[in-house]
Amino acid sequence: MTTTAAGTHTRSRATLTTCAATTTVGQYDHVAAATYLMKHAGTTAVAVLDGRQSDQPIGCITETDIAEAMARGQDSNETRIRDLMVHGHAPSARL
Q1: What is the pLDDT of residues 1-40, one digit of tens each?
Q2: Which fold would CATH assign to domain 21-93?
Q3: pTM exceeds cut of 0.70
Q4: Which of 10, 14, 58, 76 could form a disulfide with 32 if both were Cys (CB 3.0 to 4.6 A apart)?
Q5: In angstroms, how far apart are the furthest CA atoms of the chain?
Q6: What are phi and psi of 92, to 5 degrees?
């Protein structure tokens, strides 16, 4: 409660707690797995982990990256996530 010259009023501050779960895939997983995870997590991107020597993040894959690969005729059940990555980042992430 805060007292001011105009009178007494109550000031409440809402506390917002978020628990963001990050959806991840390994670079050697199939693109179809990333698509499945995105759909069920309600996200448009997933973090890509190294998966071989460590589980360090090495980039991300977005719906756009997957859509572009499918438009080029790549099969999501045969294509690995690492095939969409260029030097640790998805093609659309290049500057």
Answers
A1: 333 444 444 444 544 444 456 889 999 999 999 999 999 9
A2: CBS domain Like (3.90.1280)
A3: no
A4: 76
A5: 71
A6: -75, -10
